[in-house]
Amino acid sequence: MRTSLNEIKLIDEHIFNNGAPADAVLFDAMLVLDPSLAEQVLWQKNAHAIIIQYGRKQLKTEIASVHERLFDTPTFRQRILNLFK
Amino acid sequence: MAQQNNFSSATNRKELFIGLYKKAFPAVAKYISKKGGNFHEAKDIFQDALIVYYEKLVNGSINLNSDEQSYLMGISKHLWSKRFKENIKYAPFNIGEDVFIEQDNLTPSSDKLLYYLETTGQKCMDILRAFYYDNWPVTKIAEIFGYSGVRSATVQKYKCMEKIRETIKERSLAYEDFIE
Fold it and tell me: Which of A36, A40, A63, A83 is 20 to 30 A (C-alpha) from B13?
């Protein structure tokens, strides 16, 4: 794997705290010595946040289609709507 | 991070939601109705509760054998009371479409950024979603996205992360209020 991809892997391990202990110590040292690495960590955290936002948006669409499907069934629809009369 | 879960296909996920809807929505709707809420509020609250439930399920905080109905009711009650308090405090006459999931604290510009990423890098977003949001096993991701094996799927994950990260960096100059 090329160096930049390996760096992404190490940053992920740092964010999720799931790397080998020796790698984690080395990474912490690199963070101190290289301010641009700390910046990359922040951008990668932003990327994770936007992936979660994307996942939730997609999931909402999937759930909405389940809702539509169930509410096409008259008995289920009526059962629920009766609760709001 | 990624752990094995049973929802490694959209079909499995759909079946899960249909089951949960049938089991838990009537009780949640009854509760919201009793509290003075309307059908649309019950629907919004329940759908947000399903998202919270799904995320806890795929990250291993709960398992499928726990009492889903009680769990979803608990989350819904919490979301309802949160929404009620916030509406009293900030917008008593305007019930919006907000998603009341606490971890979601991105700024409005993240919507623009997300739209940009969806239109320019959908495939990468889908792969990254499968890895980081759905926690699908890498073997399944390789199979579904057509990679020859675990290694090439993993390399693709990091390539996509690099692409998305760089795009966010570039676009953030344009969307100044996008911050962590």
Answer: A83
Q: In angstroms, what is the C-alpha Rg of chain B?
A: 19
Q: How many domains does chain A have?
A: 1
What is the least distance, in Å, from the CA of B29 to any CA of chain A?
7
- Domain holding B130, by residue range, is 109-174
Among the candidates B61, B90, B119, a domain finishes at: B90
CB contact under 8 A, A51 and B164: yes
The lowest-confidence range among A21-30, A40-49, B52-61, B84-93 is B84-93
Euclidean distance between the first and final Cα of chain B, in Å?
21
Chain A residues in contact with B54 (beta carbon < 8 A): 59
Q: What span, in angstroms and rounded, lies between the C-alpha atoms of B6 and A65?
A: 21
Distance from CA of B97 to the nearest CA of A (A): 12
Taking alpha carbons only, the member of B119, B142, B128, B55 closest to residue A48 is: B128
Give the Cα separation of B98 and B151 in Å (integer): 39
Contacts 24+ apart (CB under 8 A), B8-17: B8/B134, B8/B136, B8/B137, B8/B140, B8/B144, B9/B140, B9/B144, B10/A62, B13/A62, B13/B54, B14/A62, B14/A65, B14/A66, B16/B54, B17/A62, B17/A63, B17/A66, B17/B50
Degrees to nearest 5, angle at CA B63 with B57 and B68: 85
